[in-house]
Amino acid sequence: MAEWTRDERYQKYEDVDQQTLDDLSAKVNESKYRQTFHLQPKTGLLNDPNGLIYYDGTYYISHQWFPLGPVHGLKYWYTYTSKDLVHFEDVGTSLKPDTKDDSHGVYSGSAFEYNNHMYYMYTANHRDEDWNRISTQHIAKINAEGEVEKFPKAVIAEPPFGYTQHFRDPKVFSKDGVYYAVIGAQNEQGQGRVIQYRSTDIVNWEFQGEVHTNLDSFGYMWECPDYFNLDGYDMLLFCPQGIDEEGERFKNIYQSGYIMGQYDIDNLTMNHGDFFELDHGFDFYAPQTFIDEHGQRILIGWMGLPEINYPSDVDGWAHCLTIPRVLSIEAGNLKQRPVKSLEQLRTNKETALGYANKFTRQLYPYEGRQYELIIDILENDSTEVYFEVRTSKTQTTLITYNKKEQKLTLDRSESGLLPDPVDSTTRTTYLDTPLTQLQLFIDTSSVEIFCNDGERVMTSRIFTDDEATGIKTSTESGQVYLKFTKYDLKDEEV
């Protein structure tokens, strides 16, 4: 793919002629990798989910968007609404780079309710004549007609003393009538941090200080922070950049994870355990959470990563959002489950019950490119069991479970075209309990694997050929007694 110049990356969508936009749309629509039940950009590049909220009976889901190609450039917010987190209505651009402060991009932020109105708090990005970054935090009100009204000036005009211009991604929450914003930051020593502000009127924001953790040297920047209490535990989510891999941990270019414990919001001290990754696949970053209509904490992530080229790039688009996940704490551990409303997409239920052994078995009539597959492991006398999806004569996506080590491995070495650069074609996680169930959501170019009813999740893009539709199972030795339940998922492209 040809290199994009700075001028090309920072041209406004509104200034591009209609024929160019129509040609790009036609190119994107012809891509064989377009998803069917995931939010994806109509053209260009999608990244961080933004402004997630359930407000006045409607879900609002936005994402970072560069409309003109599969590269990072001048960012907008693109917005959808939904009544059920399954079927989405296209709203279009909600925040645009149309002021001096956000002239070089409307960056990530969050949505919140204040005095019966909906607001966004977001990072505005501006570059000076020497291309130095200037980051400020802004607020916009969504009026009764659904139009965006930006506040006339920044509510946080500069980083606090001791921090650099890596200062972004505000997440707003309220407690006891006070509004707080946690913001990703970098100190002048080049260390990632989360800092906190407070306000009683959402106009005047007081800098409280840095959130104190025991992770003093843990990457050079912490992006997309998120704080909430879940089932009695305080959770701090963030995305550290620049940490070294540890065995099977932290193998992606950048990580997304959390610490949990107890947070003193006034003294800004977090008493917590280890940092845990939220997802153990190849393609997951920049998640954001919100409360749904049932009071559940919902997480949506970006199914992708920065600084990686994907096979769909040649078709004029890149990335999508994950399916929504319901978060809970059970026995002191985080569980992530697919939102129940996704069951609305199920059609054509098929079931199979039987033994798998060392002879690879094609599951007939099981096949497809968009489906949900539930695998219940009823008895396991094997050393390793293998599950293959999106298979053909030349391609397969392999899931391996090692019983002795309780090790689950996703292998996409034969899953068709691969992103670039790729330093490994496998991702591995160790389960807390023996594997009893896998729940897989397969779309045209992605797989999301929920292990043991939400104990672990592995999310990855796969770029297989159209004919890769088979499902197979086998073991290394011994046998395993399995129940398969498969649903086709309705093709309702968004």
3D architecture notes:
It contains 2 helices and 35 strands. It has 494 residues and is mostly beta strands. It has 2 domains: 333 residues, Tachylectin-2, Chain A (5 Propeller), CATH 2.115.10; 146 residues, Jelly Rolls, CATH 2.60.120.560. Strands 24-35-26-31-32-33 form a 6-stranded antiparallel sheet, with no helix packed on it. Strands 25-34-27-28-29-30 form a 6-stranded antiparallel sheet, with no helix packed on it. A hairpin with a 2-residue loop joins strand 31 and strand 32. The mean pLDDT is 96.
Produce a short descriptive summary.
The protein has helices at residues 6-9, 18-29; strands at 44-55, 58-66, 76-82, 88-95, 106-114, 117-127, 133-142, 148-150, 163-175, 178-187, 192-199, 206-210, 221-230, 233-241, 257-264, 269-272, 276-277, 285-291, 297-303, 317-318, 320-321, 325-330, 333-338, 346-356, 361-367, 371-380, 384-391, 397-402, 407-411, 426-430, 437-443, 446-451, 456-461, 470-475, 480-489. The protein is mainly β. The protein starts with 5 loop residues before the first helix and ends in a 5-residue tail after the last strand.
